[in-house]
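User: Run a structure prediction on this.
Assistant: Running it now.
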Amino acid sequence: MTQNNLLIIIIFVLLTYIALLSPYSIMFLKYQIYIENQSYTPKQNLNKPGEQYQDPEFYLNNAEFVKLDVEGPESIAVPKRGNKIYFALKTGDIHSLATPFITIPRKLLDQALPLKTEYVTTCGRPLGLTMDNDDNLIIADSVKGLLKFDFNSNQLSILTSSFKNSNNTHTKLNFVNDVIVGSDGMIYFTDSTSIAPVFDNSGDWNTLIPSMYTMYTSINEGKLLSFNPKRKETKVLMDGIKYSNGVAFDPNEESIFVAETGACRVYRYWIKGTNKGKSEVFIDNLPGYPDGIDVDFDEGKLYISIFGERNWIVDLIHPYPIIKNLVIRIPYLKLSPQQAGIIVADTQTGKILNYFQSSHPIPTITSTIEYNGKILIGNLLSDFFTIIKKK
């Protein structure tokens, strides 16, 4: 046996051994996450993105900011009545902010004093927020399930934390992510993955680790579900989704748009009409990972929050599970998404109308919501939220 052959054998044995170890970034957790990498081939056009994914004006440079005394306003809910907005925080708390509020330009952000927010309630790890028809908070809590905060009684209650599977037995919701309420009171929400949030050293429920691993491994265990408040009934409408995320009605409430973060696309699921119960890919091959989505009913526009642009290394190795097994175990390697942005599409055709970007680094964009002719933008990591004018 030559020296070169021996070296090849040694390298092969070492790589095989490394592939069997726990991923570095989770190997010190008390409870290990079981991950089986799947083969997935993304569509490739990232080297030559079309004109629809260009923003020569960097529209997000025109944004104004609202500085807060808390960090990470991931999702924002606006009631029909009253003078407050509400947002979910990574600490598990929900806070409110009185309106109108003071906005500042980016250049004054570091020097500005934060606005004082008001504590509302504590959940497990709230992600999506919306208001029901009585202006109570409906909360997509990744730890506890689907929750409701009643302002009249000041009580937090669990609406549902499980669903019936094909064997007619109850299965726990692992990662409730986003939620919307119809004009008829029906509630629709997503359950993103079978990997539940992890309780980290800071004392908070960490949702970023399960999210990243779900998308990296390409497991397709995300769901779209409905909850009937009158019947107390939870149903699975769609499954097999690679990390189901944001949800939004079309302007006529005939269908629901669902962000599939792991595949960088948006589904459309029909809840009324001749297509009821059917689904289709509405927008495919997005340039980044879609998070929260929202519809401007008046203008017929779908706002897609891009948490970050796609990572070309991840796209390259997605079809090869054995390579993913090796890469995920490299110490200190971070395959993070790139620049965040907002895609605006037509709700009838799916045509891309705008792709709002910034020439300045934006850590994350997680949600958008229309408010008084403007768009409020949530994020995961910063002590502010952002506002842009509708274009």
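The CA atoms of residues 56 and 357 lie 9 Å apart.
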